[in-house]
Amino acid sequence: MERPRIVVGISGATGAIYGIRLLELLRECSDAELHLVVSRWAEETIRLETDYTPEQVRALADVSYQADALGAAISSGSFRTMGMIILPCSMKTLSAIANGYDHDLLARAADVTLKEGRPLVLCPRETPLNAIHLENMLKLSRLGVRIVPPMPSFYHRPRQIEDLIRYQVVRVLDQFGLRAGEDGRWGAAPAESKGET
């Protein structure tokens, strides 16, 4: 029996650490075979924003593809997957997906995910948002795409940046019914309450 597969994309938007933590948590909470696409600009962002190298990030996946490898397995609908997550998702990538412009493997794999009716989760990283960004997100949402932008939560009283990152990734995993702990969930006891709320 073949393992379930999840496609993960990391685009060049800021917030590369979100995608890295997603891969790490997927390895912890799922037996899925991880297929990874890292865009050329994501490689630069990984170097700029984190202590990881692109090679270390690629090693977190079972299979890794170059962004220009349009003949890769994940570019075909006959290659079965559970769906795809792009975290973070740049406005360029989001626009390409919204308009069917399969210029690289990130956009093509997302297009395949859409046409096959599989779950597609996009985590756009941009602020402020202009009307074009919002219209593209609305267009995709109407097609069933889950738009899950990184939004920090504070009701769980995060103590460090890692708490905020993990909370976001856990929310993304929720879209696939995957559990990676109860980090920051509503109703969970906060890590030590001080003062009035």
From TrEMBL:
Gene3D superfamilies on file: Flavin prenyltransferase-like
Binding positions (FMN): 12-14, 39, 90-93, 125
Coiled coil: none
SUPFAM superfamilies, per database record: Homo-oligomeric flavin-containing Cys decarboxylases, HFCD
Reaction(s) catalysed (UniProt annotation): dimethylallyl phosphate + FMNH2 = prenylated FMNH2 + phosphate
The UniProt record lists the keyword Isomerase: no
A GO MF label: flavin prenyltransferase activity
EC number: 2.5.1.129
InterPro entries, per database record: Flavin_trans-like, Flavoprotein, UbiX-like
Residue stretches making up the Flavoprotein domain: 5-173
Positions bound to dimethylallyl phosphate: 155, 171
Protein keywords: Flavoprotein, FMN, Prenyltransferase, Transferase
Enzyme class: transferase
Pfam families in UniProt: Flavoprotein
NCBIfam families (alphabetical): PRK06029.1, ubiX_pad
The protein's role, per its UniProt record: Flavin prenyltransferase that catalyzes the synthesis of the prenylated FMN cofactor (prenyl-FMN) for 4-hydroxy-3-polyprenylbenzoic acid decarboxylase UbiD. The prenyltransferase is metal-independent and links a dimethylallyl moiety from dimethylallyl monophosphate (DMAP) to the flavin N5 and C6 atoms of FMN.
Record family assignment: Belongs to the UbiX/PAD1 family.
Name of the protein this chain belongs to: Flavin prenyltransferase UbiX
Gene that encodes the chain: ubiX
